[in-house]
Amino acid sequence: MPFNHIEYKKPIYKIKAPLRDHLDQYSRLSDISLTYEDLLRYQQLIPITDDNGKDTNWFSALYPIEEQKYFQEELVKIYQTLVADGDILNYVKVGSIDFCSFGNSKPFRIKVINEINDNYDYFYIKKADASRIYGLELEEIFSPDKVTFLVNKSTLIEDHVVGIPCDEFITRNKKVKIENRLRFAKEFVKFNERCFVRLLGDMRAYNFVVEITQDFDNVQYRLRAMDFDQQSYEGRKNMYLPQYYKDNLPLVDLARELLTDEMAQQYMKQERVAMKKRYLAYKQRTKSLLRRMKKDTISSKENIETLKKEFAVYYNNPQFLNFKTMGQILELHIETKLGIKIF
User: Fold this and answer.
1) pLDDT per position as a tens digit, 189-246
2) Cα(80)–Cα(9) distance, integer angstroms
3) Dihedral-angle region of residue 163 (phi above 0 means left; psi in -120 to 50 means alpha; beta otherwise)
4) Among the listed residues 218, 24, 207, 212, the one whose alpha carbon sits nearest the alpha carbon of residue 103
5) Do 134 and 298 meet the contact criterion of CB atoms below 8 Å apart?
6) Buried b (16+ CB within 10 A) or exposed e, 69-96
């Protein structure tokens, strides 16, 4: 049965010293001076509309004149640290600062413009949340994509994930047969499996993007998560499977139309094999992360109780019933799915 929405708001979980040590070890910490709270000092928010004049969840943030120069300089420094390891990038300026009132992280979106050619890029400033950071690190380890982010105390800086939000992609192509439909169906099956193996929840269509690449004879697709707030938080097993969200039904229907069960199972197996290879390449990093995650609190007791019972039945393995944290559940789940032993 598809889910229409998440009925509650996830709390922000503090980054504790063990996780901060992991981030330091793998060069994720930064001493940037500007914080998320600084950006909340806006004077006015102006609604941003789409091309059809409809309101979005974004607002243009306006700041006092006396603070604009400071924000401009500090945000450029952050961008340089994020994408160029602190090297000076000439002719770069901040084009806009936007605020999103929707979701758990309530992010600021920073548009950075190259003054020479008017090319632009984005990055995001958010409240630092431990579960989200575990999600970003797991994406770095288990997905085919690289993830760029920095943490300073209670502030999280994230690079922009390039692609078309899948809900927009679905709307644009509602009455159109896209090119290479089989490849798109295959990618959704693999994305669905990847989210489940690493327990990334709330992958509704607006929380992941479609990356389109023109190959020499056809169009290729990749689906990429761009929201990691619900990493190992949900209590119901099916909430970690994108196929069960109502928003994603057009993708599910496409997969059912083009793929047999045998083909879908083969693609799922291919993705698990790829994830196992990625784990072997990041073995020490995975151990470092899960060692901390197993002792951390990133979900409610009720959700942990529900999920461990569901997995005990799903795997016919009562060992899940002994667990007290989401990190413990995730470790055994990954080990069972990928056929590995982490510790």
Assistant:
1) 999 999 999 999 999 999 999 999 988 778 999 999 999 999 999 999 999 999 999 9
2) 33
3) left
4) 207
5) yes
6) eebeebbbbbbbbbbeeeeeeeebebee
Long-range pairs, 269-272, Cβ under 8 A, ≥24: 270/190, 271/189, 271/190, 271/193, 271/194, 271/197, 272/193, 272/197, 272/337, 272/338
Q: Where are the domains of the chain?
A: 17-159, 164-338
Say how many C-beta atoms besides its own lie within 10 A of residue 2's C-beta.
12
325 vs 32: CA distance, rounded Å: 32
pTM of the model: 0.94
DSSP state of 119: -
Q: How far is CA 40 from CA 29, 35, 46, 61, 222, in A?
A: 22, 9, 14, 9, 35
Where do we find the tokens 């995001």? Answer: 124
Computed on alpha carbons and rounded to an integer, the radius of gyration of the chain in Å comes to 21
Helix (H, G, I), strand (E, B) or coil at 306: helix
